Amino acid sequence: MSQINQHQDKITPFIVRLFLWASIWLHVIRGLFTLFVFFPISNRAKKDAHIKRWSEKLLSIFGIELRVKNSSILPIKPILLASNHISWMDIHTINAFKPIRFVAKSEVESWPIFGWMAKQLGTVFIKRESAKHAHLVVGNMAESLKKESICIFPEGTSTDGESVRPFKPNLFESAVVSDAPVYTLAIRYVCKNTGRRSNVPAFIGDMGLLESMSNILKNRNLAVELTFFPPAGSSPMSPNDRKWLALHSYEQISTYFDQVNKH
Predict the structure, then answer these.
(1) Alpha-carbon separation of residue 232 from 51, 98, 245, 256 (angstroms)
(2) How far apart (Å, rounded) are the C-alpha atoms in residues 249 and 227?
(3) Are strands 222-229 and 182-191 parallel, antiparallel or unpaired?
């Protein structure tokens, strides 16, 4: 636990936080306006441009610096991107780099405002406790992967980011069916000053969305690192075995975390 930034830098002054809260809600209203007015008349490229700009601004309000590593390995063709999951902010950090379609737990759909926005952005909601619903989602994902990339969080829950939980293999079946390559993404939140992992953005336990937002606003000294890893080399199992694909992505992130946490 020594790598956690437990004693954060000076807390953001209260009056500044009031201004930032106002900025957030104005930004949300701007996003809603864009969804209502511009999205219906925009093609995919223009929609992605709107999403990217909105997400970049959101990170700026929260004081989060975006750092991207190994992005040159990403292909133009559709991929399945498997990522660890720490915070509700993960989606916005990825979209600030490059907008992508997500699969999220069904609870997100019920979030005030943000849930509705996620739905308008094409997020696929999955009832993880329902095998029948998961099977239906996998079929829809396989069709979508023929023309667009999708990001999944196979841990099935968010963590504090110290380590990664074993990946659940179900959603990897969509890559097998569609023959889409599986790339891996490791997400880390760190203190800008020290480079050490921070648990400030962690969205875990019974924490509410507003509580999590408040935690980040109090400690505006964060950077988020997105590190991409390529698919495995040739293997007789990899194209046809969802469990193998899930294990491979999990081990890529786990090995990476072991390395960076030693420093």
Answers:
(1) 30, 23, 9, 15
(2) 12
(3) antiparallel
pLDDT in tens, 178-214: 999 999 999 999 999 899 999 999 998 888 889 999 9
Q: Which CATH architecture has domain 14-260?
A: 3-Layer(aba) Sandwich (3.40)
Torsions phi, psi for 130 (to 5 deg): -110, 110
Q: Residues 80, 150: contact at Cβ < 8 Å?
A: yes
pLDDT, the chain, mean: 88
Secondary-structure breakdown of the chain: helix, strand, coil percentages, each rounded to the nearest 5: 45, 15, 40
Tokens of 150: 């999708």
pLDDT tier at 3, thresholds 50, 70, 90? very low
How is residue 255 written in tokens? 């090995």
Give me the sign of the Cα torsion angle 32, 36, 37, 41.
positive
What are the tens digits of pLDDT across the range 237-260? 455 789 999 999 999 999 999 999
Backbone angles phi, psi at 148, to 5 degrees: -150, 155
Are the beta carbons of 92 and 100 closer than 8 angstroms? no
Asked if 83 and 153 touch (Cβ cutoff 8 Å), the reply is yes
Taking the model in full, what pTM does it have? 0.89
Phi, psi at residue 150, to the nearest 5°?
-135, 140
Average pLDDT over residues 168-183: 93
Residues 6+ apart with CB under 8 A from 28: 113, 114, 117
